[in-house]
Amino acid sequence: MVLNWAIGDEPCDAAQHRQDYACKGNSTCVNPHNLSGYFCECLPGYEGNPYLPDGCQDTDECQISNPCSAGACVNVLGNYSCVCPKGFKGDGMKAGTGCSKDNPSNLFKGIRLLTISLATTVALLVLLVGSSWTYWGKKKRRFIKLKEKYFQENGGLLLQQQLASRGGSVETMKIFTAEELKKATNNYHESRVLGEGGYGTVYKGILEDNKVVAIKKSKICAPAQNEQFVNEVIVLSQINHRNVVRLLGCCLETPMPLLVYEFIINGTLSEHIHNKCRESLLSWELRLKIAAETAGALAYLHSSTSMPIIHRDVKTTNVLLDENYIAKVSDFGASRLIPLDQAQITTLVQGTLGYLDPEYFHTNHLTEKSDVYSFGVVLVELLTSKVALSFARPEAERNLASFFVCSGKRVA
User: Fold this and answer.
1) Residue 404 and which of 115, 226, 251, 332 are 20 to 30 A apart at CA?
2) Binding site: what residues are annotated?
3) Would you please indicate which residues are annotated as catalytic (active-site) residues?
4) Burial label, 185 (beta-carbon count in 10 A; 0-12, 13-18, 19+)
């Protein structure tokens, strides 16, 4: 007699979702043949009562029957595994391939394959490192050649020759790197622009030691501009005066040459004269002091340097004021050195309309008097607070010098 029974009348799929589901841990639900309901049995590798919470316990196959042919039998929950000894291969099971001694030739083949793989990996690594080294080496050489190219284009050789012929050398100034000045100006951000002139743009720079400087960058890369750069360095290398802006160094590594000056905090004299908010700060005593200091700087340039220097662009925008309102003459890009045996030189006219000496303008003969004339216009600006050239005035008085002379005649 066979007793066939089942629990309830629902199959496993439905019964598993009921609260009174009878199958407990490590058991599975079984649908009986030709009957409704279900019954439970332990999972393979387990034995016991599937209707009790801990009824199904792991069967240790290694202890009961040891299904492994050789080597070690390792029991795991619900199963087991056979491990062949070292030097043998196979699944280690009696019912399987068992364990057989590994062929030494196969081992040799494995070692050979491993050796080839390692050799190939090392070769590829060496090739990669070598290629990277060659690439960076070429890139570094190209960078060095580019810097040498810029050095020559920026008049570096001419600068060295000129300074050496006058007893100086380029080492007397600090040579800044392009990266240094790029970082100091926040990549030449427009918020750092202090002003723009005929020969370049001036930026405010903050060096790594927090020193504030003014960095002059040429507007275009052209031989004429490079000559102006060399000229300014040569001229400033001859000057040591408290009323002349001090040159701190230069950079020759960039397409456009760069000059680094001391930073003058109070801006230009022009800003103070013509800005209504600042004009009140310039008392008559202060204006007289600024005029005297500017005159002293020009007198020094004309008579106290080893070779007389004509500024050639004296104007209120080229006179800076420091925190104590001490005048500092700046922008020597148009300046010329005059040999001691010559009273004048013939050159192309350069300067700013309104300040330009009429005699120099018509004859091309540059003398110290050209600076004196321009300084006279600066004095009239200080006296009248009027701009040097204005098309709002009558045609005969557009030039401030003419306006001042006409005003003097009317008073007389």
Assistant:
1) 332
2) 217
3) 313
4) buried
